[in-house]
Amino acid sequence: xxxxxxxxxxxxxxxxxxxxxxxxxxxxxxxxxxxxxxxxxxxxxxxxxxxxxxxxxxxxxxxxxxxxxxxxxxxxxxxxxxxxxxxxxxxxxxxxxxxxxxxxxxxxxxxxxxxxxxxxxxxxxxxxxxxxxxxxxxxxxxxxxxxxxxxxxxxxxxxxxxxxxxxxxxxxxxxxxxxxxxxxxxxxxxxxxxxxxxxxxxxxxxxxxxxxxxxxxxxxxxxxxxxxxxxxxxxxxxxxxxxxxxxxxxxxxxxxxxxxxxxxxxxxxxxxxxxxxxxxxxxxxxxxxxxxxxxxxxxxxxxxxxxxxxxxxxxxxxxxxxxxxxxxxxxxxxxxxxxxxxxxxxxxxxxxxxxxxxxxxxxxxxxxxxxxxxxxxxxxxxxxxxxxxxxxxxxxxxxxxxxxxxxxxxxxxxxxxxxxxxxxxxxxxxxxxxxxxxxxxxxxxxxxxxxxxxxxxxxxxxxxxxxxxxxxxxxxxxxxxxxxxxxxxxxxxxxxxxxxxxxxxxxxxxxxxxxxxxxxxxxxxxxxxxxxxxxxxxxxxxxxxxxxxxxxxxxxxxxxxxxxxxxxxxxxxxxxxxxxxxxxxxxxxxxxxxxxxxxxxxxxxxxxxxxxxxxxxxxxxxxxxxxxxxxxxxxxxxxxxxxxxxxxxxxxxxxxxxxxxxxxxxxxxxxxxxxxxxxxxxxxxxxxxxxxxxxxxxxxxxxxxxxxxxxxxxxxxxxxxxxxxxxxxxxxxxxxxxxxxxxxxxxxxxxxxxxxxxxxxxxxxxxxxx
Length: 770
What we know:
This protein is α/β, with parallel strands linked by helices. The chain has four domains: 2-88, no CATH class; 163-200 and 390-620, Zn peptidases (Aminopeptidase, 3-Layer(aba) Sandwich); 203-386, 3-Layer(bba) Sandwich (Glucose Oxidase, domain 1), CATH 3.50.30; 628-765, Transferrin receptor-like, dimerisation domain (Transcription Elongation Factor S-II, Chain A). Helices cover 37% and strands 18% of the residues. It is built from 21 helices and 21 strands. The strands form five sheets. A seven-stranded mixed beta sheet has the order 6-16-18-17-19-21-20, sandwiched between helices. Strands 8-7-15-10-11-12-14 form a seven-stranded mixed beta sheet, with helices on both faces. Helix 3 packs antiparallel against helix 17, helix 4 packs across helix 9 (424-447) and helix 4 (150-159) packs across helix 17. The N and C termini lie far apart (78 Å). Mean pLDDT is 84; it is low at 1-63 and 88-133.
């Protein structure tokens, strides 16, 4: 036996490979030396390298008797092992023993029972306990509500309340570290996503200034991403700066090279500046009029004027690791200076502006006393903007609760933690809701037997005040994979702005989920639900609740840039009264307490329950709670509007040789694909994991496939066919330009048709009508 073992070990040693080495030969060529053993120096094969050398081990120099011993040894070991294994696995026969009841779980969480028997005369071996039955929906929502209490939020709101939390500051990073540590304590495997960006800041050495006659003003508020420089022009009052406002003014005052004075509201700062630039204005001044902002008239405004989201100096790609990208700027950066001023400064300017008095019927009159709101165009003013770019490091922080069936599919909940000042409603409330939801879901999994099918990811973003910079850079960094995995994004920013009513902005896929959640979550004001609190007099639900999603909405880049179904919602004081303290130093605990009638913690708990219940539904059910039919109805309406306009012009002879029928057929294809998903839902066994996953992927694909593949993410980042911005959208199809119209129709048609094909799932089900 020892001889067999020795021979076997010798063979194994001789077969051991080591490194390949190349050594120069005498003729200057290179040879490959293959060593089969470190100590076998005499068993070397030298192969002369000719082109691509091939390597093979040296032949073994062993006797036939050695080979025979090895074979016999292997056979002996195999026989012994087989005999021992067979003997150890024999079981005695016996009498049947009742093993009791086996429980199964239905899709609604209830259990079924059936009796099982087996045969054995020996005592039954220990059996692993049956898995806990899935908690039913009522129990889940009850558990969630019990954990998200007003008392819990009183503590959380105090914990995350910061006097200063500007993006990239030490306070911002410190808060990020605290959130990271909290996720770590909850065993949520936290990670950090770091970006290096340039954020505009006022120059302390050269403050921004405005000179009007002999008076000079140096405002402390500012607009990030404004063009810098010094311009001079005639001062003109333009109301809110809407296109219709500027059209009215332009009829009586020349806007080219003027400095437009606009009051804040109705539009984002970026849209106001963009409209002014389209009229060839030289600069823009924006102030809060007392009619819209009933606070101190010396209050300064802060904001940004990038007509987009993310870092405008790395458009379409992420700002990782100080990577040196080519000098490309976002097409949404303004070309003219813009600056905010207080209502007091605006009053001084309007008293001396001169010119014709504005038309009272056009709504130009504001709330400043002793001011006639003349249109101006007579007096010259100088605007000087000296903002500088500051290198800043942004930290996004994430934590995850992994799903038990489809962990690679997840619902993302996010909140920004930065603000211009205290940012109590803007950042503190959302951060508190994020952390309490993470804690509640963790406890439900660890202690209460909750088993989410899909994962929950919690994200704390930085630089939200600069246009969702942290969130957008993350989306750009993982653009090739995120849309395949994220089911829905739920924004927690500004969820509590008052009490008494409720509004939301969302992808149509989430309308039904929003509506059902409103009917289930109890109203914080007493009896009834959020739905009964908001929808009054049997009015239309979507008319009273739903709002268009603006570019400043934190959920907008997720929807229009990445094609992820997204939602943001807000508890507000009344349907017509907004929270006016955003972007000011007045966004603090006292002002939010006034807006909520001193019930901030109760309102925050209700908002957390609302977001948590939406997330619960999305990770709990076999089928995703996304309603494709809502999208089908919206696209049907949008396409028929374009189709009707073109047909009308064709009949009148104003338009020729343009056929909108293909776009109409693409709409029909989308409708059939949506109906096909509905049929698949009815015919699919949702308890079958594979069938359920295939169906859910078809549903989830709808939003992403509406992103136009025909436009550049650098020039047109918001590529969504319905909610994007640019000439590719259905809403922007221009019937006045025949050449442009043909291209727009073609691109919209194929975008819609490709989406319908993707929704069909299998390639053999694709409708090839177009």
